[in-house]
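Kindly inspect this today.
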Amino acid sequence: MAAENQVRAAAAAPPAPGLSADGMTRRQLLRSVMFATIGGMIGMAAAGAGGMFWPIKLTGFGGIVPAPVKAHEMEIGDVVVVRDGKYYLTRTEDGLMALYWKCVHLGCTVPWNATQKKFMCPCHASVYEITGQNIAGPAPRPLDMMEVIVESDGTVLVNTGKITERTRHEPSHAVKI
C-alpha cells in the first residue's frame, strides 16, 4: 500500500516549475515567438525590397503613347491633341512633329488656337507657329519636341520620355511621311 500511495502522490504532484503541458518552458515559448516575429519582419522587408527591382511598365506620359490617327489620315495644317501623352501631333509640309504642350517660358499649358492657326500661351502671351517656333512673347525658344516613330501601317507612336529642346525650328526636326 505504501507503493500505491507513492504512485498516487506522484500523479497528483504539480509539474516541475516552468514546464508546460507539452514539455516546453515559458522561456522556450517566448524565444520561439521572438524568432518567428523577427523572421516575419525580415520576410516582409525582403518582399518590399524585391518589389523595387520589379520593372514598372510605363503607360501614358513618360512612355510610348500612340496617336489616335494614322499618319496618312492627317493633312497639312492638322493638329491633333493627345491628352494621355501631353503633346500635339502636327502635320506640316516638312512632315509630322510631336510638340510637348508645355510653354518653355514658365511651363503653362499652351493651347492650339484653330482660328489663328497658332499655339497661344494664356499666361504671358507667348505665340508659336504650327512647327513650334516661337514668334512672339517672352518664350526664349521653340516648343520642345518628342520622338516620333511612324510604323509601316501608318500608326504613329510618340516616345514621350524622350523630350528634345531646340534653339530654333529646322525642317529636319519633322519626320517625313
Remarks:
- The chain has two domains: 2-52, 64-173.
- The radius of gyration is 36 Å.
- Strands lie at 64-70, 79-82, 87-91, 96-100, 112-113, 118-120, 127-128, 134-136, 145-150, 155-164.
- The chain has a mean pLDDT of 86.
